[in-house]
Design goal:
alpha+beta; seven-stranded mixed beta sheet; two-stranded antiparallel ribbon; 11 helices; 9 strands; 20% strand
């Protein structure tokens, strides 16, 4: 069973080092049983990054939106009255208290750390801890889920790294930034969610790019063949570490040619 010391050694061998800004997508279950659980994984990463490094995780909340696949699955089979009651009970997104959904235990642990900051987007928030947290997190525009005015745009500019820990490229949100860039007029759709902008609980609606991760596994395979990706074991999982900017630039070219 890996512990903090095993994890720290594995992350160091992979290339995690002091001062980096690292966006982590992870599956704790893929690592296997870890002595100390999610806190041990996060502690190992933060100690390697040191006081000058910043750890970033996705902390999305699709369940508070009635335009998400998560919501559709929740209400499937409900009567109209049951759907109405469910919608009335959906709490407004609060960056400080709303739990992550479908993101795993590691992002949930990071968002609750002392000093962590979380973006205000009601669907696709990110949390970060470290000296660059505010620069990455603040100003996440509501009508920009994962584009230029989201933390992904700031991570691109910051020269961040992406760590895929026990997950595949289908979970690589950096590729979504390329969806905003690879053509001038990408398909768009409406999104809705429950928010509180100081007026109490209410529904908001906005329009943004129609995101599609359906070909990200193929995109990731092509990226790994063409570009340098550091790979290594972390417990039972395979981890990959690579520059976010390299991944996005490759994805722009690949999507232009293949989508």
């Amino acid at each position: 069973m890996p512990n903090y010391h095993h994890l720290r050694h594995a992350f160091a061998a992979l290339g995690v080092a002091p001062g980096q800004v690292v966006l982590v997508h992870c599956s704790l279950s893929a690592i296997g049983r870890v002595h100390g659980g999610a806190p041990a994984v996060v502690a190992a990463l933060r100690d390697l990054l040191g006081p000058g490094g910043t750890l970033v995780v996705p902390t999305g909340t699709p369940a508070n939106s009635d335009t998400s696949s998560c919501y559709r699955a929740l209400v499937a089979g409900m009567s109209a009255e049951e759907v109405a009651r469910h919608r009335a009970a959906m709490p407004a997104y609060d960056p400080a208290t709303t739990p992550t959904a479908l993101m795993g235990r590691i992002p949930e642990h990071v968002r609750q750390l002392p000093g962590a900051r979380r973006s205000a987007h009601p669907h696709t928030s990110f949390a970060a801890v470290g000296p660059h947290a505010a620069a990455v997190i603040d100003g996440h525009a509501r009508d920009c889920l994962l584009g230029e005015r989201s933390p992904l745009g700031r991570l691109y500019d910051a020269g961040a790294l992406v760590l895929l820990l026990g997950v595949g490229y289908d979970r690589c949100t950096a590729f979504h930034l390329a969806e905003y860039r690879f053509r001038d007029d990408p398909p768009r759709r409406s999104y809705r969610g429950v928010v509180d902008d100081g007026r109490g609980r209410e529904w908001c609606e906005f329009e943004d790019v129609d995101l599609d991760a359906g070909d990200f596994a193929a995109l990731g395979a092509a990226f790994e063949r063409a570009c340098r990706v550091r790979r290594g074991p972390v417990g039972d999982a395979t981890a990959r570490l690579f520059p976010l900017r390299t991944a996005v630039d490759f994805a722009v070219a690949w999507l232009t040619a293949n989508r």
